[in-house]
Amino acid sequence: MFYDVKRSETRYLQLVDLSDWPLHLHQLRGVSLCGNRIYAVAPSALFVFKISEQRENALLQLEKKVYRPEWVLGKNQQGDLHAVHASRERQKVYVSFNAQCAIDVFDLKGNYLHRRYLWDIAPDLFPQPSASIRTDFRYGIVRHIFESPVQGLLLTTTLLNGGSDSAVISYERGHTFLSQPAKSIHGGEIKKDRLYLCAIQDGEVLAFPVRNGDPMVDASPSARFIPHLTDHKWHGSAQNTRGLAIIEDKLYCGVCYFRRPKTNQIPPRIVEFDLSSGQQTKEHWLPSFQGFEDPQVYGLLAINDNLDTVLTGIAEPAFYRGPEPFTPDWEMGEPPDDQIADEPSTIDQTAVDPPKEDGPEDIQSEKEAADETKSAAEHHISPPEKAIQPEPAIIGASPPPMEESVSAPLVDDDDSSEYRPVGEATVIFNKVGLCFERSARKFLSFNKALSKKKKFWALQEISFTVHEGETLGVIGRNGSGKSTLSMICGGVLLPDRGNITVHGRVQLLALGVGFKNELSGRENVYISASLLGIGKKEIQSMMDDIEAFAELGEFMDEPVRTYSSGMRSRLGFAVATAVKPDILILDEILATGDKVFKDKAMRRMKEMRDLARSVIVVSHNPGQLRKLSTKVLWLEKGRMVMLGDPKEVLNAYNNFCKNPVKWMENNPDLASTVFGGAHRHG
Description:
Blueprint: E1 2-4, E2 9-17, E3 31-34, E4 37-42, E5 45-51, E6 60-66, E7 81-87, E8 92-97, E9 102-107, E10 112-117, H1 118-121, E11 141-148, E12 152-158, E13 166-170, E14 176-180, E15 185-190, E16 194-199, E17 204-209, E18 223-225, E19 240-247, E20 250-256, E21 269-274, E22 280-285, E23 288-289, H2 305-312, E24 318-321, E25 324-325, E26 330-331, H3 366-372, E27 388-390, E28 425-439, E29 453-467, E30 471-475, H4 482-489, E31 497-502, E32 506-510, H5 521-531, H6 536-550, H7 565-578, E33 583-587, H8 595-610, E34 614-618, H9 622-628, E35 631-636, E36 639-644, H10 646-658, H11 660-666, H12 668-674, E37 680-681
Parallel strand pairs: 2-24, 30-34, 30-35, 32-33, 33-34
Antiparallel strand pairs: 1-2, 2-27, 3-4, 4-5, 5-6, 7-8, 8-9, 9-10, 11-12, 12-13, 13-14, 15-16, 16-17, 17-18, 19-20, 20-21, 21-22, 23-26, 24-25, 28-29, 28-31, 29-37, 35-36
């Protein structure tokens, strides 16, 4: 798609038919322009288009389809080609072959030359992995390739060494140009001593200082450009940024949503910023038409003079399906007038000029950035097959959002998460209550007056919602109702009052629950997985991953009764997370086990959350919940005391535990509601 940002209109769109290609995902991803050719990649193919100057023909004439036999291997994403870059200076085309952690090199006509692996490009950055790795381990995913006059070819790489870190790497020199821990980055462009990158999940564009072309490594961003929601009707919309371009004094970034859209989701768009002031000056709404999903931005690219001349000669917007023209039944991209802001939004900033000597200044404070940022993990979903999908943009859009990608965790190990819920609701509690009957009659007592049963309300008036990608921490003293809540979520117990709605497959994992003591660990794996509806072949395919994570060695084939509590925890956790439930409930499962296991378990839970799965963690340990949770629920005597930000709730809980009387004196409203004796009815 060719989009004119000055006229705010689509000048040209051409759909590419991928139906006859052996693709699991029918979509185009990266795009590059060199001379009179445009290069685009699908997950397992490279397309070379030649720009036609004959106005009666389609602008893009398919010159060559390129594929390597190894590109079509594998599941879902096959070769997982993401990025393509055509270099006029080097007279070569570079394609990221992520399934094998490599860069494939071609000449400008699409003829294969050679391949370089990440560990050959940067040996120090990609060491040999440890003995225990996941079956889906990769050294990294190259999401974008771009050039710098000083640094040469640069690779924007995420999920380094199977972890959550990202980096910009020099292709020729092998050093790290920029390192970003626990960030999922995309794109890359250097302009006026700044490197600009998209932080996909955080929904922002980051600017980093570049001094004399030297590597920055661990530099902090000097500015953040965060797209604003321009109308209250879009309140709560999620925003992912992917694709950026700089034209003169303007920065453009693609903003969209990678999962199933919600009813109030703001449409996909390109947001324009003024580089000098940091002001959000305009929103360019992407077109959509009947029979196709909304387009999603994968990459943005400023056109060259040759293509600009050709497009200038097109008097009216033109649309082609392959080589044939067609008239789309669509709206030209703008939402109704009442959904557009009258005035452009301005980023609340301290400075967008180059940083001072004493350190960079952020456009927004961390608190403001957290309030504005809308995160989203790219979900592992294959799209419904379509014969034709829109082509990636030259200042434009890529195919629909159901792209199978991997995202980095959103939680820093040393602090609580600023993550915000972006997915659909998976667990909804609505005024849930559960009552147990108990007898006051003592054993062997013949006093009939004591035989009257009493009611004990383990839970009362509990209401909360867990969304896709969220981790809910549940904390409270012994007897507060934490395990009861987890068993209701897991379907073990049914509420006496209120109702609960659960969307997705649930796995409840608690110490001592679900294992047959006389069976071996391996046999218990088959039983546990089969109860979740997993077939034998699928269980066998995940067994290596389960064994590697549990680290039981020869004890895997010994009876579970010989296991310690820590070994049970490791095996149970390995099974529960390997089968990838939609909702995972962990009831004090991290209370046992050594530090190595706990660290592995935390990383695994973060991965699950980033794959848009929901996790509920029941624990007595505030430190664990602070690291893992996106929000925390505090229970006391079966009632909900607080629900909200992990720091706020856990600080209040700690103060309560230190001195309950003083806490209740300082919080009389909460104390009267929770501790007023209403939790028990005779």
